[in-house]
Amino acid sequence: MHDETLQELVAVQIVLSTVAGGGEPAAMKEAINQARGLVANQITSLRHLIVEMRPFALDQLGLAPALETLCRRTGETFGLEAELRVGAEWSRLGDELSPEAQAHIYRIVQEAVNNAVKHAQASRLLVELHSDDHAIKVAVRDNGRGMAHQPSTPVGRSALGTVVSTGTGLSAMRERGHLLDGHLTVDSTPGEGTRVSLLIPRHAKRRSRPKDSASA
């Protein structure tokens, strides 16, 4: 997997270097299309790798108990208050969330928690799981130092071209939110903490497997 990724990225570099060196417009267009194809191959491969990296706790406990364990261990390890609140309606989701979707949600929460502990200097964390007839809602709030110039930054499908420069791991959370057809936002104010919110529409058929992996 890693060898293939490296080889194709080197190939992309060579192709783009050729384009940068000039040449006929037709040849440049062909080289660009070739580079785009190589990048698309690796995006697909990396997405499959992300899905395969499923947290062990999910298989043993389920999403909500796994996040409860994450909060408890975070509190014990770093000496802060970490709480999970689960809405009563969450239990009625049944098996609507596929194992892949649960893994993405877990990793998003885990990354937000890590950011709060390592970078925000928070003393309190709150993780929330809710759902209604229209959407699944996940939020992570902290009382840390917050981030400047980060008011309600969208990190969903509509903002894939936006580079979020503040914080750590936001691009990974953005990609996971995209894979869930979700909308991820980061609201932060200096001195007032940060809130990471994920909104996932319930119209998507989350039990179906990706076509690429199903045909593999």
From TrEMBL:
Obligatory cofactor(s): [4Fe-4S] cluster
Main subcellular localisation: cytoplasm
Entry keyword Flavoprotein: no
Reaction catalysed by this enzyme: ATP + protein L-histidine = ADP + protein N-phospho-L-histidine
Subcellular location: Cytoplasm
Enzyme class: transferase
This enzyme's EC code(s): 2.7.13.3
Cross-referenced Pfam families: HATPase_c (PF02518), HisKA_3 (PF07730)
A molecular-function term among this protein's GO annotations: 4 iron, 4 sulfur cluster binding
CDD domains membership: HATPase_UhpB-NarQ-NarX-like
Histidine kinase domain boundaries: 1-204
Function field: Member of the two-component regulatory system NreB/NreC involved in the control of dissimilatory nitrate/nitrite reduction in response to oxygen. NreB functions as a direct oxygen sensor histidine kinase which is autophosphorylated, in the absence of oxygen, probably at the conserved histidine residue, and transfers its phosphate group probably to a conserved aspartate residue of NreC. NreB/NreC activates the expression of the nitrate (narGHJI) and nitrite (nir) reductase operons, as well as the putative nitrate transporter gene narT.
PANTHER family: NITRATE/NITRITE SENSOR PROTEIN NARX-RELATED
Protein name: Oxygen sensor histidine kinase NreB
Organism listed in the record: Streptomyces rapamycinicus (strain ATCC 29253 / DSM 41530 / NRRL 5491 / AYB-994)
